[in-house]
Amino acid sequence: MNCKQIIALGCVATLASFPAVASDIDGRTVCVNRYASAPVIDEVVDGLRAGLAEAGGEGVAYNIQNPEADAATQQIVSQQFAAGGCDVIITVGTAATQAIQQATSTVPVVFLAVSTPVESGLIEALERPGGNITGVSDPLPVEAEVDGMLAIKPSIRTIGLIYRVGDAAGDVLAARARTRIEEHGLAHVTAGIANAGEVTQAAQSLVGRVDAIQFPCDTTTMSGVVGALAVVEENGIPAFGCTTNSVQQGAVLAGSYNYHDVGRAAGALAAQVLRGADPAETPIVVPEIGGFELNATVAEQLGLTIPQDMLDNAFATY
User: What average pLDDT does the segment 248-274 reach?
Assistant: First the structure.
């Protein structure tokens, strides 16, 4: 695989650090739909700014909007971006990207933090996206997360799944998680949500019914995961999945990317598009997974022992 195909993280670093042509994209407008409030989204937006600056876009103008995962507000933001004034549109997450896809087929779009871009109907293929959309995909390792949780707590028999039902990323990732759970001969219970405000209630509905909870990690669930983690802490239920944010807040483990670097990759890609690259012919960037992030403190509180080899190879431990 080379830089003209699916781009690995090492290649992204090369793209992000090429010598900038002085001010050639300064003054262009970068419209960002960050979708919701969450620390991990702060990371990707900070990385986006850094990546654009490194690629010669220190002087671009930003229009950053946050619809707070509200579908109606999301539609308004998408229509405003599509109406004019955006030289490139950056979208965070699947739902935000699908909304802008419906609003425009002409304004160039660069997505980031989309785990399932082909399955979501955003692009035709990773190597050749087609249309006006390219971006940075972070396919989450839900199967490895199930395996990792069972290595820490082999007594698990039933796993609860919390995700936004009807979300292209949530549905696909949850289906993959269910398949892996069944391969282990275990049971699963779904607590579906329609919006971020229902995440806490979904967790409460699983208390007494499951031995652990997994967040397959669509963007909507991610934005409300803190409330669910408060529930699992109160009830002594181990939780896993859903990136750095969830592990820092109380999940035991999650497969993870460095999301600042994911944002940097999107910034480098946006600079290419601003310089005339055709999104239809610009391959999707797929960074390397950093590994597991582990919350050893929470594991100890739950009476769980993390295997030493997992600790030795962890991307980060809290």
Answer: 94
One domain, residues 201 and 309 = yes
Residues 16 and 103 in one domain: yes
For 91, the 3-state DSSP assignment is: strand
Same domain for 263 and 249, yes or no, is: no
What count of Cα atoms within 13 Å lies in the side-chain half-sphere of residue 258? Answer: 15
What range does the domain containing 106 cover? 9-138+258-281
Query: pLDDT over 90 for what percent of the chain?
Result: 79
Across the range 233-246, mean pLDDT stands at 92
At residue 114, the 3 state secondary structure works out as strand
DSSP 216: -
Q: In terms of domains, do 175 and 248 share one?
A: yes
Q: What is the distance between the alpha carbons of residues 56 and 43, in angstroms, rounded to a whole number?
A: 20
Q: Give residue-wise pLDDT tens across range 205-224.
A: 999 999 999 999 888 898 89
How far apart are alpha carbons 264 and 71 in whole angstroms?
27
270: its two tokens? 């946006």
* Tally of CA atoms within 13 A in the half-sphere of 111 that contains its CB: 30
| CATH code of 228's domain | 3.40.50.2300
Find, among 209, 90, 96, the residue nearest to 158 by Cα.
Answer: 209
Identify whether 19 is part of a domain.
Answer: yes
Inform me whether the pLDDT recorded for 2 exceeds 70. Answer: no
Q: pTM of the predicted model, to two decimals?
A: 0.75
Range 243-251 average pLDDT:
90
Rounded to whole angstroms, the Cα distance separating 284 from 277 reads 13
Same domain for 86 and 204?
Answer: no
Statement to judge: residues 170 and 301 lie in one domain: yes
